[in-house]
Design a protein that fits this description.
two-stranded antiparallel ribbon; globular; DNA-binding; 4% strand; homodimer; 68% helix; mainly alpha
DNA sequence: CGGCGCCGATTGGTTGACCATTCGGGGTGA
DNA sequence: TCACCCCGAATGGTCAACCAATCGGCGCCG
């Protein structure tokens, strides 16, 4: 399993709405926000800095890099942004519908207790998300942990690309007004159903719950063309 | 690369004569060797670990990863070769089992007559392939056309990555003796079944045929590990 | 009134001690 | 004699305190 903090930080940045060159909260604040110690957060920041995504300056703060293309990152980032330009939201959701139910099924077999605990935490956090963008970050993380729990590194990599494309596409239709999801948002209970199936190690139920979740999200996208 | 410690660590590893899987000195020793503090060394180790070059185990030590990580291109090819190193043949086949039946179902709805004709040509050509490697090329093309016929550019891109990884993995275990598939090779009829379902626009049958095809290939891989 | 400089708050960076995990060796009992 | 268990050393992981650099405001002085 990979570094959970790094994953959370990546998704927080995505959900934060920060643009290139913007300043991140201080390490101490960000650690509190993510619920991790400063040292643990620091480990993730070091990796992002080495990838070229961040710039850290003593006495000033931590900034998102100005360059869009990481010079020596994993290379997957460039492919993602490239794909995002020729992909629509509907295609992205349909691709998720193909991949993620199967990932959920595998995750039901292979998820570790730590991963299940993390999913539980995220499920609760999403219910009280104050803004849509913070919700998006948590949601991305939820699905990514399921992908990593599936135990197939290749499928996980494909899902990461897919999720990256989806995040870019979602960004495009983010409105400035951002009140956050209302308490009755359909995804809350759907996430709960997925998580419950994973905890029961019921692969078929997990797969079905994931499919239902994505289909209801897709339906919401097509009926209310907010984007 | 601006981090001097990281550079020194990389060079030390190269000059150390250590092989894959070997254990590095402890953080405290290595810090003394390189003349840096443990924290500073640790920063470099974190980066190398995130890059996949190291594995660190509490209570045991720090080890060179089994796979090396040479420099890579930045495009999709680099991502493919990167993924191929951390993916086994079984994982690759399982990923195909997730993706390709769904692609076949979509292709049954959306394939153009020209695509069906091309698939027909490939199916015939594969039956008379003189060598395994030429057969592999035709087979890759067959599956890639189905992916493109599905009509979802994102899924097609994912499949292209998947197919790239599979080709690398398959090549690895190619023997020098290469008589080509014998006339009774199971895939011939399975390809025919897929193509037939596509021509009938029968999505369910196409999906089932594709799944059966991949499963029989996976079974052949697991029973006769020679390839 | 304007420029200069100091001072403190804030930031990322560093340090040393401490914690959790793993492994192996020696003692103990069957 | 062998198996088991326990304990201590070694290892990577974590933490809280402290350091150095930076910036902004305030006051002093020209």
């Amino acid at each position: 399993m990979q570094d959970m903090t790094l994953m959370r930080l990546r998704n927080w940045i995505v959900g934060s709405g920060l643009a290139r060159g913007d300043r991140l909260p201080s390490e101490r604040e960000l650690g509190t926000l993510l619920g991790v110690s400063r040292a643990e957060l620091r480990k993730a920041l070091i990796v992002l800095e080495a990838e070229g995504g961040l710039e850290r300056l003593v006495g000033r703060g931590t900034f998102l890099a100005k360059q869009s293309r990481p010079a020596r990152g994993s290379g997957i980032e460039g492919v993602i942004s490239e794909l995002a330009e020729s992909t629509g939201p509907i295609d992205a959701m349909n691709a998720r519908l193909v991949l993620e139910p199967e990932l959920a099924q595998l995750a039901a077999l292979n998820a570790t207790p730590a991963q299940l605990r993390e999913l539980r935490r995220l499920s609760n956090a999403m219910r009280v998300a104050a803004t849509w963008s913070s919700y998006e970050g948590l949601d991305s993380e939820f699905h990514e942990i399921i992908a990593s729990a599936a135990g197939n590194s290749l499928l996980q990599a494909l899902h990461r690309m897919l999720n990256g494309v989806r995040q870019i596409v979602v960004w495009r239709r983010l409105e400035t007004s951002d009140p956050g999801p209302d308490p009755g948002y359909h995804s809350f209970d759907e996430h709960e159903a997925i998580l419950s199936a994973l905890e029961r190690r019921d692969g078929a139920a997990a797969s079905a719950a994931m499919r239902a979740h994505l289909q209801s999200t897709l339906a919401a996208m097509t009926t209310s063309p907010a984007g």
